[in-house]
Specification:
heterodimer, A: about 525 residues, Rossmann fold, 2 domains, 6-stranded mixed β-sheet, B: ABC transporter involved in vitamin B12 uptake, BtuC, globular
Chain lengths: ~525, ~350
C-alpha cells in the first residue's frame, strides 16, 4: 500500500443506494474524502450516515452505486476487505471484549502471528501509541478502562491494522469535555500525517470545531457538501433538519415550593454486589429540576432504580412528601405519584408488542375509569388514548398499533404521555433525549419544562451536558457512586462539571465559588 | 500498603487452607481404599477410563460454548456415536475405523445443529434438545442390528515404556488403550490453542462479542461452524469410546445420560480444558468408587445415583460461591449484521 499524497482523493462513493425493508436508507449519495482532511458527515438519527459508512466498511452491501479507493474501483464484501484496503472504523458502541486485555483486543484485529498473538502485539502497540500520544496500558483489561481510554484502544486498533482512512462514528458521545479535547488534538495530529478522517456526528459545534469539509444528509439524501469555513451553525441546522431550529429553550422562572423528595445517605448495591451508590444525599422541591450529570455507569442507573422501588436500599432513608418510602414497592411509588421515564425505553418503558392504547394504561388499568370491576372499560380506554395521542402529538397509524414499531421520538412522547398526564409529584427522567432527532428533542424538553411549571419535582439524568446545563435548576455530579458536588446551574462552567465527572470534588476545584 | 498485605495474606491463607483440606481428603481416601483391600493404582486406572468419554465431550463442548453456542445435544451425539461406532467397527473390521465413524456421525449431527442455530438463527436450547432426541432415536435405529453382539475388533492396551512402570501414577495414566492417551494429549493442546493462539483468540472473541470479531475481519459464521462441528466430532468419539473401546458391545441407552454430565462439567471447568480434565477425573473417580462400595454391600440403586448427585452438588456449590462464573458473554445469542 503506497502512502497517498496530501489532497489526493482517497475515497470516492458514487450514487450509493441502499434499501432496507420499507426504508430507503441511502438515496443516490455521492461522497468523497481526501488524504489529510477531516470530513464531517452530519445528519439526524436515521439520516443514513451510519448506513453509508457501514457500506464503505463492508458491513452492508450497496444495492446500487460504486466505490473507488485511491482511484481504483473496488467491491468491499466484508470488513476484512475494507481492512485490506486500509479502511478502519471506530464504531459508536465500542466493539471490544471487556474481559480481554487491551493487547488481546488489538491483536484480534491486527496480529500476523498465529502463536501468542496478544503478547507479540505489545511492542507494536507501544510504538504506535507513542507516535500518536495515545497512552494506554496494553496489559489492562478493557473493563477497567474509562470511556476515553476505550476510545483510544479503538483508535489504536484501527491504526495497528495500518488503516489510512478512518471512520469515526459519533466518537464524542461518551466522552467528557476533557476527553473530547484530547481526541480532537489526536485527530489533528493524524490529519497532519496524511490520514483521511471521516467524522460522523449530529453535533453542530463539533463539525465547526474539527472538520475541514462537511456533508449534510437528510432522510437518506445528500443535502450539501461544503467547506466548513463557509458554513455557520444556523445553516447547518437548517440543512440537517429542513427547517429553522431554536437553540434555546425558553425556561420561565418558577417559584419553588415544598420539598418533595429527600434522600439521606443512600447506599445501594449494583448487580455484582458492589456498592454502586455511596452515601448519596439530596433533595428536590416542587417546580425544580435537579440534573444529575456523570459518565455512564457512575451509579445513576442504580440510584434511579432505588428511587422507584426497583432496587433494594441497603442504608439511608428516602422520604417522599414527608412519608418514609425507604422500603416501599414499585406500586407504592406509583401510587404516591412518582412517574418514571426510563433509559431503556423499549425494554423498560413499554411493552413493545402491546398496542399504543394498552401501553397508555399500563399504570392505571386497575383504577376507574379504565377498570369496571373485573373488566376493562374499553370505550374509556379508547377515548383517553385518542385524547392523549393528539395532546402529546404521538404519530401512530392507530391506537391499536403495536407500540414497538413507533419511531424513537414517538415512543418517548408516548411514555411521557402516560407518565405525565396523571400530574405526578415527582418525575424521574433518564436520558430523555438520547438518540432522538432534533425536532423530538425540542418537544420532549418543552414537555419537561411544562411539567416544571405545573410544580412537579423533576430528577433529570443525562449524559448530554448541554441538556443538563440548560434544563436544570441545580446540578449534581456523580462519580463512582458518590456525589462530587451539587451546584446551581447558573454558577458552574462546563469545564468544572467535566472535572467533577472525572472525580474532583467541587470544593477542591480552584476558583470554585462554593 | 498495609491493607494490600492484609488482603494478600488473607487470600494466601484461604488457598493454603483449601490445599490442606484437599490433600487431607486425598490421603484419607487413598488410605481408605488400601485398607479395604482395593489397589489405588487399579482404582485410578478405572477412573481414568470412565473419565475419557466425558473428557472428549467436555473438551468439545468447551470450544462450542467459547464460540457462544450452547449445544445441549451432546447426549444425542454421544448415543449416535456409540451406535455408529460399533456399526463402523463391524463393517470395516477395525476398532480404529469404528472410532472414526463414531466421530464422523457426531460431526454430521453437529453440522445440522449448526445450520439451525448459526445460519437460520434458531434458538439454541430447543435446537439442542431436538438434537438430543434425534440422536437418541437415531442410535436405536442404526444400532439395532448389532445390539448386544460382542465386538471382536478391539483396541489393545499399549502401556507406555518406562512411564508405565512408575508406581500408582504409571497405572493411573500410562497403561491404557490409545484413545485414552489421545484424550489426555488433547487437554494441553486444546488449552494452548484456546488461550495462546490467534485461532483461540478469534474463538473467544466470537463468543464474547461477535460484532467486535466481525468488525475486526473474523468470520463469525465460519468460526462458530468450526467449533460446533469440532464439539460434535469429539462427542461422537466419546460415544464410540463407550461401545468400541470400553464395553466392546452396544446396547440402547448405554451412554446413560453422561452427555448431560458433560454440560455440567463444561460449567464446572469454567470453560477451560484443564478444568475439563479435573472435572472428568472427579466424575470418573466417583463412578469407579461406587463399584467399590457395591462390593461392600451398599444398595446398588443409591450408588448408581452417586455420580449424578455429585455433579448436582458440585454445580450448586459452584454457582453459590461464584456469582460471576465468567460464562462467554455472547452464549445463546445468534449473530447477524443487520
Amino acid at each position: 500500500m503506497r502512502k497517498p499524497r496530501m489532497e489526493e482523493t482517497v475515497v470516492e462513493m458514487k450514487g450509493i443506494l441502499k434499501r432496507f425493508p420499507g426504508v430507503l436508507a441511502n438515496d443516490h449519495i455521492d461522497f468523497d474524502v481526501k488524504a489529510g482532511e477531516i470530513h464531517a458527515l452530519l445528519g439526524e438519527n436515521g439520516a443514513g450516515k451510519t448506513t453509508l459508512m457501514n457500506i464503505l466498511y463492508g458491513l452492508y452491501k450497496q444495492d446500487e452505486g460504486e466505490i473507488c479507493i485511491r482511484g481504483k474501483k473496488v467491491t468491499i464484501k466484508s470488513p476484512k476487505d475494507a481492512i485490506d484496503l486500509g479502511i478502519g472504523m471506530v464504531h459508536q458502541l465500542f466493539k471490544q471484549v471487556p474481559r480481554h486485555t487491551v493487547a488481546a483486543n488489538i491483536a484480534l484485529a491486527s496480529s500476523p502471528d498465529f502463536f501468542f498473538p496478544g503478547s507479540k502485539a505489545k511492542e507494536k502497540i507501544l510504538r504506535i501509541s507513542e507516535e500518536f500520544g495515545l497512552k494506554v496500558d496494553p496489559d489492562a483489561e478493557v473493563w477497567q478502562l474509562s470511556a476515553a481510554e476505550r476510545q483510544k484502544v479503538e483508535l489504536l486498533k484501527v491504526l495497528c491494522r495500518g488503516a489510512e482512512i478512518l471512520i469515526l462514528d459519533e466518537p464524542t458521545s461518551t466522552l467528557t469535555p476533557q476527553g473530547k479535547k484530547g481526541l480532537f488534538s489526536q485527530l489533528k495530529e493524524m490529519k497532519k500525517k496524511g490520514y483521511a478522517i471521516i467524522f460522523i456526528t449530529h453535533k453542530l459545534d463539533e463539525v465547526l470545531e474539527i472538520s475541514d469539509r462537511c456533508t449534510v444528509l437528510r432522510k437518506g439524501k445528500k443535502v450539501k457538501t461544503t467547506p466548513t469555513s463557509k458554513a455557520t451553525k444556523r445553516f447547518l441546522a437548517r440543512w440537517m433538519v429542513g427547517r429553522e431550529v431554536l437553540f434555546k429553550v425558553k425556561k420561565k422562572t418558577v417559584k419553588k415550593g415544598k420539598i418533595v423528595l429527600e434522600v439521606k445517605k443512600l447506599r445501594v448495591l449494583g448487580d455484582r454486589g458492589e456498592t454502586a451508590v455511596k452515601k448519596v444525599s439530596f433533595s428536590i422541591r416542587e417546580g425544580e429540576i435537579l440534573g444529575i450529570a456523570g459518565i455512564g455507569g457512575s451509579g445513576q442507573g442504580e440510584l434511579i432504580e432505588a428511587l422507584t422501588g426497583l432496587r433494594k436500599i441497603e442504608e439511608g432513608r428516602l422520604i417522599l412528601s414527608g412519608k418514609d418510602m425507604t422500603k416501599a414497592s414499585p406500586r407504592e411509588f406509583v401510587d404516591a405519584g412518582v412517574a418514571y421515564v426510563p433509559e431503556k425505553r423499549v425494554e423498560v418503558g413499554l411493552v413493545p408488542t402491546m398496542s399504543v392504547k394498552e401501553n397508555l394504561i399500563l399504570k392505571d388499568y386497575r383504577v376507574p375509569p379504565f377498570s369496571k370491576r373485573v373488566f376493562l372499560n374499553l370505550s374509556a380506554i379508547n377515548r383517553s388514548a385518542k385524547e392523549k395521542i393528539s395532546r402529546y402529538n404521538v404519530i401512530t397509524p392507530s391506537p391499536d398499533t403495536p407500540a414497538g414499531i413507533l419511531s424513537g421520538g414517538n415512543i418517548q412522547r408516548l411514555i411521557l404521555a402516560r407518565e405525565t398526564s396523571g400530574e405526578p409529584k415527582l418525575l424521574i427522567v433518564a436520558y430523555p433525549t438520547y438518540g432522538l432527532d432534533v425536532g423530538s428533542v425540542e418537544s420532549v424538553r418543552e414537555l419537561l419544562l411544562k411539567q416544571r411549571e405545573r410544580k412537579s419535582a423533576i430528577l433529570l439524568i443525562s449524559e448530554d451536558l448541554d441538556e443538563i446545563m440548560t434544563m436544570s435548576d441545580r446540578i449534581a455530579v456523580m462519580y463512582e457512586g458518590k456525589i462530587m458536588g451539587i451546584v446551581n446551574a447558573g454558577e458552574v462552567t462546563r469545564e468544572e462539571i467535566g472535572l467533577m465527572m472525572t472525580g474532583t470534588p467541587w470544593r477542591e476545584i480552584p476558583n470554585a465559588r462554593a | 500498603m498495609n491493607l494490600a498485605t492484609k488482603v494478600f495474606s488473607n487470600i494466601l491463607r484461604k488457598k493454603t487452607l483449601a490445599l490442606i483440606i484437599g490433600l487431607a481428603a486425598v490421603v484419607l481416601f487413598v488410605s481408605y481404599l488400601e485398607l479395604s483391600g482395593v489397589k489405588t493404582g487399579s482404582f485410578l486406572n478405572r477412573a481414568m477410563v470412565f473419565a475419557t468419554p466425558l473428557l472428549f465431550g467436555t473438551l468439545g463442548e468447551i470450544y462450542a460454548e467459547r464460540s457462544g453456542i450452547l449445544n445441549l445435544g451432546i447426549e444425542g451425539m454421544m448415543s449416535t456415536g456409540a451406535a455408529a461406532g460399533i456399526l463402523g467397527a463391524f463393517a470395516l473390521r477395525s476398532a480404529w475405523a469404528g472410532a472414526a465413524v463414531g466421530m464422523i456421525s457426531g460431526a454430521l449431527l453437529a453440522f445440522l445443529f449448526a445450520i439451525a442455530v448459526v445460519h437460520l438463527r434458531g434458538m439454541q436450547v430447543p435446537a439442542g434438545l431436538g438434537l438430543f432426541m434425534f440422536g437418541l432415536g437415531l442410535s436405536g435405529v442404526i444400532g439395532v442390528t448389532h445390539a448386544g453382539e460382542k465386538l471382536p475388533y478391539i483396541f489393545t492396551k499399549t502401556p507406555i515404556p518406562v512411564l508405565s512402570d512408575i508406581p500408582v501414577l504409571g497405572e493411573f495414566l500410562f497403561q491404557h488403550v490409545p484413545l485414552v492417551y489421545l484424550a489426555l494429549i488433547l487437554v494441553p493442546i486444546m488449552w494452548f490453542v484456546l488461550f495462546k493462539t490467534r485461532l483461540g483468540l478469534n474463538i473467544r472473541t466470537v463468543g464474547e462479542n461477535p460484532a467486535a470479531a466481525d468488525s475486526a475481519g473474523v468470520n463469525v459464521f465460519r468460526t462458530r461452524y468450526l467449533c460446533i462441528i469440532l464439539g460434535g466430532a469429539l462427542a461422537g468419539l466419546g460415544g464410540a469410546f463407550f461401545s468400541v473401546a470400553w464395553m466392546h458391545y452396544w446396547l440402547e441407552g448405554m451412554t446413560a445420560g453422561w452427555g448431560w454430565v458433560v454440560i455440567a462439567l463444561t460449567i464446572f471447568a469454567l470453560w477451560n480444558p484443564l478444568g475439563g480434565l479435573l472435572g472428568s477425573l472427579l466424575f470418573g473417580g466417583v463412578h469407579a468408587f461406587q463399584f467399590e462400595l457395591q462390593g461392600l454391600g451398599f444398595p446398588i440403586h443409591i450408588l448408581g445415583m452417586l455420580p449424578y448427585l455429585v455433579t448436582l452438588i458440585t454445580l450448586i456449590t459452584l454457582l453459590l460461591f461464584r456469582r460471576r462464573l465468567g460464562a462467554p458473554s455472547a452464549l445463546l445469542t445468534s449473530y447477524t449484521r443487520e
